[in-house]
Write a structure and sequence with these properties.
single chain
């Protein structure tokens, strides 16, 4: 850490400090990021700014941002966040402790205790759990493949065929 700060100083950049109020969590590993997500979602205040179609289900503390949609036959169980302009299609399940970014589409499958970043498409025949999905990623099932579950750490702009 000292080397990084010294490098910034050597480049003439301004380096300062501040004191953190409340809790702080090191997020250096994927497990730490998921734990931080759980801590944040535990404090979530429910809010529905998106649309929930009749015969769909939004249960518990869920925050749906503007332009989001939960279609008929879909289930979102909180605590969970559904980002702006994200669609949860019929038959899809978003489980507790899941954050879904902006402009995503969860077409089918189950997602629990995970973070899906912006501009992702999820269309799987199984459950994704304890996973980080990087922005602009697409995860789809291969025809005829029905695995029991996956744990994924997926980088930005990835495509995965399961």
């Amino acid at each position: 850490m000292k080397q990084a700060i010294q490098l910034l100083l050597d480049q003439g950049l301004n380096v300062s400090h501040d004191f953190i109020e409340g809790w702080w969590k090191d997020t250096g590993k994927p497990e730490d990021i998921l734990e931080a997500n759980r801590l944040v979602l535990d404090e979530l205040k429910p809010s529905i700014e998106g649309s929930v179609q009749e015969d769909s289900s939004v249960q518990g503390r869920v925050c749906m941002q503007r332009g989001s949609l939960v279609e008929k036959g879909a289930l979102v169980r909180g605590p969970a966040i559904i980002g702006e302009n994200t669609i949860v299609r019929a038959g899809a399940y978003i489980g507790p402790y899941t954050s879904v970014g902006r402009d995503c589409e969860v077409r089918k499958g189950e997602v629990e205790n995970s973070i899906i970043m912006d501009n992702c498409i999820i269309e799987v025949n199984d459950r994704i759990a304890d996973s980080l999905i990087g922005p602009n990623s697409k995860i789809v099932s291969n025809a005829g493949n029905a695995p029991k579950g996956r744990r994924l750490i997926v980088g930005e702009c990835s495509t995965i065929v399961l």
